[in-house]
Amino acid sequence: MSLDYLLDAANWSLTSPDGFPQRILEHLGYTVLALAIAAVIAFPIGLLIGHTGRGALIAINLGNAGRALPTLGVLMLALGLVGIGLVPVTIALVVLAIPPILATTYAGIQSVADATVDAARGVGMTEAQIAWRVEVPIALPIIIGGLRNASLQVVSTATIAAYVGLGGLGRYLFDGLATLQYDQVVAGAIVIAVLAVAIDLALAGAQRLLVSPGVDGRGAGNRPSTVRPEPQPEPAG
Amino acid sequence: MSEIWRYLETNADDVLTALVQHIWLALIPVAIAFVLALPLGALVHRYVPARHIALTAGSVIYTVPSLALLLLLPGLLGTSVLDPINVVIALTLYSLALLVRTTADGLDAVDTTVLQAATAMGYRPVRRWFTVQLPLAMPVVLTGLRVATVANVSMVSIAALIGIGGLGQLFTRGFQLGFYLPPIIIGLVLSVTLAVIADVLIVAIQRGLTPWARAGAR
Amino acid sequence: MIEFEGVTKRYPDGTVAVEDLSLKVDTGQITVFVGPSGCGKTTALRMINRMIEPTSGRILIDGDDVTSRPEAQLRREIGYVIQGAGLFPHRTVLDNVATVPILQGISRREARTNALDLLERVGLAANLGERYPAQLSGGQQQRVGVARALAADPPVLLMDEPFSAVDPVVRDDLQQELLRLQGELGKTIVLVTHDIDEAIRLGDKVAVFDQRARLAQFAPPADLLAAPADDFVASLVGRDRGFRGLGFADGSSVALKPIDHGVDGLTLEVDHDGRPLGWRGTDGLLPTEGTFSDGANLRTVTDLVILSPAGAAIRVDAEGRADGLVLLEDLAGSVRSQQRERLAALATSEDAG
C-alpha cells in the first residue's frame, strides 16, 4: 500500500483547492451544516415527545426506519428531485441525521427517573423548566451519543457525495479510482478515517465537559449502581 | 408511477440479479459475524482487559466511514479493489464490532442470582452456558443482530460505487441516466423492504426462542 | 390549616382513589395519613399541591382554594419530600437544596449560603455540600431531600413515605430528627406512611384510610390505640394496644415512695451525691437496670419496673440524684385509674356528641 500521495507535501498546501486542508474544511463544512440543521429540527421534537410521552411510537420507530435507509439511495433521490448542488446534498444529509438524533433524544429524556421528574414538578418547576433544567442535563450523555451516531452517518455520506461531483474528502477516493492512482485513494481513505475519529473524539470530549459529574459517575466515591452505562454507538452507512 | 413499472418490466433480470447479489452480500457477513461474536462476546464478558481492547477496536472500526474502509482493505489484504470479498470482510468487521459488544452486554444482563441458582442445582459450566446463560442473553443479543442486519442491508448499496453488485447499482444507473428516478426509487423500495423483512424475521425468531419474555409481558 | 371539602378522585377506568374526603389538618401539627396500599393516602396528599387534581370537591390552604393560583407557584410555597428523596443527580447537594429559592429569584450565592445552614440543621456535615447525590447514602439523601423542602421556608410540608426507602436503624434516626426539627420550626406537616408505628410515633393526629379509600378514623394516636373506631383500625393498629398506649400516658402521675423504702428485701444504695449505685440485698449489690426522669411516659416507667431486680423503678432529678421509687402496686393502681378516667371521658363525649 503506497503512502506516496499522503506524504507528498504538495498535497498539504493550504492554498491549493485540491489540497488536503481545503478539502478537510469543505468536508467539515458539509458535516457541521447538516448536523446543525438536523439537531435544530430533531432535538426539540425528541425533547417534546420524551417529556410528554405522546408520539413515542414515532420516535422509537424512526430510529429503526432511519437505519434501514441506504444512504446512497437517499442522496440520489434528493439530487434527482431537486437537482445538483449543495442544497439537495444537505437535504439528504439532514434526512439521514434526523433519525438517530430524534430517537436518542427521545430515549434519553424518557429514561430520566420518574421520581426525579416528580420531585422537579413538586418543587414548583414549570414543565419547560423541568425539561431544560432537569431532563436535558441528565439525558445529556445519551443525547450526545445520538449526535455522535449522526455525525458518523453524515461524515460517511458526505464522503459518498463526491461521487456526484461534490467536494470534500471523497474526491480523492473517486478521482483516484478513476485515474487508477491507488495511492491517492489510500491517502483519501486514511484522512477520512482520521477525520471521522477526530470528530468522534471531539464530541466525546464535549461530553466530558458538558455532562455533570453527578450523572456520568465521575464524582469520587460513587456507588456503582447509580452510574449510567455508556450509550451505544451504531455503525454508519 | 407507470414509468417505474415500465422500468421494472424492461429491466426485471438486472433488478433481480442486483437483489440476489445484495442479499448475499448483506447476509453472509452478518452470519459470519454472529457466529464469531458468540465466543468473542463470551471472552469479552469474562475478561476485563479483553473488554477494553474489544470496545476500543470496535469503536474505531465503526467510526471509519464504510467507503474508506472498503478502499483501504485491498491495500491491507492484497486483494483487487474490485473483488467482492472486500465488501464481505468490511461488513463482517462492522458487524463484529457491533455484535461482540451487544453479545457481551446480553451476557452481562443475565441475572447473576439465576446463574448461581443453576450452579447450586448442579449444572456444570458448559451446560449452564448453553441452557441457561445463552438463552437468557438472547433478547439483547438478537436486538443487536437486528441492528447489524439492517445496517448491513443499507451499507451494501455503497459497494456499487466501486463497481461491485447489489441494489446500489440501481442508484448508480439512475445517476448515469441523468438522475433518472425510476431505478432510484425501485432501489430504495427494495432495499428498505429487504431491511424490514430481515428485521421482522429476526423478531419472529426472537419470539420463538424466548417464549418466557412474551408470557411475562402480558 | 389545610382543609379537604368533599374531595373525590375517580379515574376514567372507574377506580375510586379517594371518596368524599372531608378533614381539617391543623396548623403547626404533624398529621399522618396511614393505611394499606391503594387506600388513597398518597393520592390525597398529592392533591394538596395539585400533583393530582380532584374529580370533585376542593382543598383549601388557610382559606384559599389551591386552584386559585398557578400550580408551579403553589408548589414553590409547599415543601415536598418523596420516598428516595428524588434529588437531582446532575446537581451538587448544595445546588439541590438551593433549588426553590433560586426558582423564586433569590441570587445563587445567597441561596447556596442559606443552603449550607440548612444542611447543618438537618444534621449533615457542611463538606457534603459539593458532593453529588450518587455519592451519598440513602439516609443522607433523604436528609438532603428534607433540607431542599425546607429551603424556601414554606409553612406547609408534604412528605410521601419519606423514610420507607432506608433501613430501620436509619429510619429511627430520621424520625427522631423530624420530631426535633418540628420542635424548632412548627410547620404544618402532612406525612403519608404505610407503617402504623411510624404514624403513632410521629403524628399529632392520625388519619386512617381503609382499602375502600374511606376515612376510617381521624384522631390523636392515643385514641387510635385506646379506642379504635372499627375492626379494620383495630387490626391495622395491631396487638398490644394497651401496652403501647402507655407510651402516651404521663409517667409522673404515679405516686412515689421515698428512696429508702425497702422493696422485697432490697434497699436502694446511693453514693455521697445521691446517685443510685444499685440494690443492696443478702446476695450483694444488684445493678439498677436504668432510671427515669420527670417527663418520662408510663411505658418507660413500666418497663423499668419489670426489669428492676427489686420490681421498683428509680426516678432521678436533673443532676441524676435519686428522688423517688415507683412500686409495682402503685403503678398498677395508676394504670387502672387512668383507664377509668378515659372511659368516663368517652362516656361524656358520647353523651355530648
List the helices and strands and how they pair.
The complex is a heterotrimer of chains A (237), B (218) and C (353).
Chain A: H1 4-7, H2 20-52, H3 56-68, H4 71-82, H5 86-110, H6 114-122, H7 127-161, H8 170-178, H9 182-210, H10 213-216
Helix pairs in contact in A: 2-5, 2-7, 3-5, 4-5, 5-7, 6-7, 7-9, 8-9
Chain B: H1 2-10, H2 12-46, H3 48-63, H4 66-77, H5 84-109, H6 112-121, H7 125-156, H8 168-176, H9 181-209, H10 211-217
Helix pairs in contact in B: 1-9, 2-3, 2-5, 2-7, 3-5, 4-5, 5-7, 6-7, 7-9, 8-9
Chain C: E1 2-10, E2 16-25, E3 30-34, H1 41-48, E4 56-61, E5 64-65, H2 71-76, E6 78-82, H3 93-97, H4 99-103, H5 108-121, H6 138-150, E7 156-160, H7 168-185, E8 188-193, H8 196-202, E9 205-209, E10 215-219, H9 221-226, H10 231-237, H11 241-245, E11 267-270, E12 276-281, E13 284-286, E14 291-293, H12 298-307, E15 312-316, E16 322-327, H13 328-352
Parallel strand pairs in C: 3-8, 3-9, 6-7, 7-8, 14-15
Antiparallel strand pairs in C: 1-2, 1-4, 4-5, 9-10, 11-12, 12-13, 15-16
Helix pairs in contact in C: 5-6
What does this structure look like?
The complex is a heterotrimer of chains A (237), B (218) and C (353). Chain A has 237 residues and is mainly alpha-helical. Chain A has one domain (4-8, 33-226): MetI-like (MetI-like fold), CATH 1.10.3720.10. Chain A has 10 helices and no strands. Chain A is elongated, with a radius of gyration of 20 Å. Chain A starts with a helix and ends in a 21-residue tail after the last helix. Mean pLDDT of chain A is 86; it is low at 223-231. With 218 residues, chain B is an all-alpha fold. Chain B has a single domain (2-213), classed as Orthogonal Bundle (MetI-like fold). Chain B is 85% helix and 0% strand. Chain B has 10 helices and no strands. Chain B has helices at 2-10, 12-46, 48-63, 66-77, 84-109, 112-121, 125-156, 168-176, 181-209, 211-217. In chain B, helix 2 runs antiparallel to helix 7, helix 3 (48-63) crosses helix 5 and helix 7 packs antiparallel against helix 9 (181-209). The radius of gyration of chain B is 21 Å and the shape is elongated. Chain C is of the alpha/beta class. Helices cover 37% and strands 24% of the residues of chain C. In chain C, a hairpin with a 5-residue loop joins strand 9 and strand 10 (215-219). Classes of the chains: A mainly alpha (237), B mainly alpha (218), C alpha/beta (353). Chains in contact: A-B, A-C. At the A-B interface, helix 3, helix 4, helix 7, helix 8 and helix 9 of A face helix 3, helix 4, helix 5, helix 7 and helix 8 of B.
